[in-house]
Amino acid sequence: MKFAMRLGRRKKNGIYFVEIEGKRTSLGTRDKVEATRLYNKIKKEALKGKLAFLTGTSKITLGEFKEKYLEWAKSAEVKSTYRADKLALQKLTKQAGESIRLDKIDIFHLDKMVASCLEQGLSKNSINNYIRHARRVMNKAVDWRYISRNTLSEKKELKVDKSPPSFLHKDSIPEFLGKVTDIDVRRMIVAYIATGRRRAELVGLRWKDINWETKTYHIGKSKNHLSRDYPINSVFETVLKSLPRSSEWVFPRFRHPDTISHLVKDALVAGGMGHLHLHHLRHTFASLQIMQGRSLKTVQGLLGHIDYQSTLVYAHLTDEFLQENAEIQLGPIDLGN
Fold first, then answer.
1. Residue 113 buriedness (CB in 10 A; 0-12 / 13-18 / 19+)
2. Which of 98, 150, 237, 285 is least crowded, fewest Cβ atoms below 10 Å from its Cβ?
3. What are the beta bridge partners of residue 218?
4. Stretch (H or E) spanning 8
5. What domains can you pick out in the chain, each with its CATH number?
């Protein structure tokens, strides 16, 4: 039984990949020894599961797959994706059980996961994120020939209210910041408002990413967009110049993303805005840009949105801005009677 599989290396970035019957998967390393070790391990497992794949059954259990997947994903995926995959797998495993065969998992188990999340009071957006990552992880099980098809791909996400995003209004920001007594947290909050960056993007920022000559900062590959440079505006420049350089990291105290999320949430609650959380600082940046007359296309670029539809949630603010700024001054004009 022939099995087309090979180890390769990308010319562009030097990262090794494994190709199984035409499908490439990154190994997340430039080290040949480590890549060879991972390749041999994957090859052994892939050959073992080939017969089961062809017959539509699987010998591997969900618990075994979870362990193998997380070992691979820890080095092959960006941290934010790895963490989301891990959470989704944990929640799915809790409902389906460690010992269930991979080919026996279906939408019933995903529905149980959703029901459990709703009982816990989780938001629909959070639950949809778990659904997306559960489907994504099972796609990898198909790639690795553990199962012949991903039954979870048929699961639809929960319908979410498309109400406009909430944000901090400009006039309330100074008073809110004045109540943040922890100077490190205050600086971090201002940095998020000034840049509109996602949580992990600022947490992962290093001083080597700052280019003072061009007044730009570099964000590496993140949630869903390619690496690129963004402009340093005057507010963010003030934040950067106020920070000590005792570490390679710009914000060394907040190396774990959850740390800054909790601290910002506490600050918002203390400021009487407990209905908001860290991501609303990104919405605040976008709203401030639009209220200053920036176009949606400009905001799309500043936020790093690939899909223009993601930026359209701020369209109502553009309409309000145009309405408020429709007046023009022409001076006295005689138009007759």
1. buried
2. 98
3. 229
4. strand 5-9
5. 5-154 (1.10.150.130), 170-324 (1.10.443.10)
Distance of CA 276 to the CA centre of its chain: 18
pLDDT of residue 249: 95
Q: If you average pLDDT over residues 15-42, what whole number do you get?
A: 84
Are the C-beta atoms of 50 and 3 separated by less than 8 Å?
yes
- Of the pLDDT bands very low, low, confident and very high (cuts 50, 70, 90), residue 54 is very low
CA dist list (Å): 183 to 180, 201, 239, 307: 7, 20, 11, 35
Q: What is the DSSP letter of 250?
A: S
Amino acid 136 reads R
Do you know the residue count of the chain?
Answer: 337
The predicted-structure confidence for 220-262, as pLDDT tens digits, reads as follows 865 444 678 999 999 999 999 999 998 999 999 998 888 899 9
CB 248 within 8 A of CB 208: yes
What number is the average pLDDT over the span 281-285? 92
